[in-house]
Structure formats: structure tokens, C-alpha cells
Amino acid sequence: MTADQLKDLITAGLPCEHIALEGDGRHWYATIVSAQFDGQRLLGRQRLVYATLGNRMATDEVHALSMKTYTPAEWAAAQA
Hints:
The protein is an alpha+beta fold. It has 3 helices and 3 strands.
């Protein structure tokens, strides 16, 4: 899977204001900013992202996804 394919999967299921991906095709690191994360704890945010991948984690198409998730306000503060 390419970074563009993974980005398309995530953004199709989760409106993102920013998404950056790095990886080798199976192991990925993502930075994701979405208003959908408002009021969500870390586990809830991760579940939202994993839901966009469907069974691709189970089939090993995406072997690992490490992520940092931010609300737009958290992202703005992190960039300041």
C-alpha cells in the first residue's frame, strides 16, 4: 500500500484537516488532525482511524500504524 492509498482510505472515512504519513508500505506513522477527535480520548481517536481501514489491519495489508492524533485546537497549539 502506498502513502496516497492509505491517506485516501483514512480521509474517506474521517474528515481530516491535516494528515501526514511516513512508512515503508506495511509499517506506518501518521499525524492526523480532525475535528472528529473533539471530546475523544486517545483510544476513541485511534478507533476512529482504525475504523477507516476496515479489515486491512487484519489481512496484514497494513501491518502497523502508529499515530499521533490532534484536534484542530491542539494542532494549532503544537505548531505555535
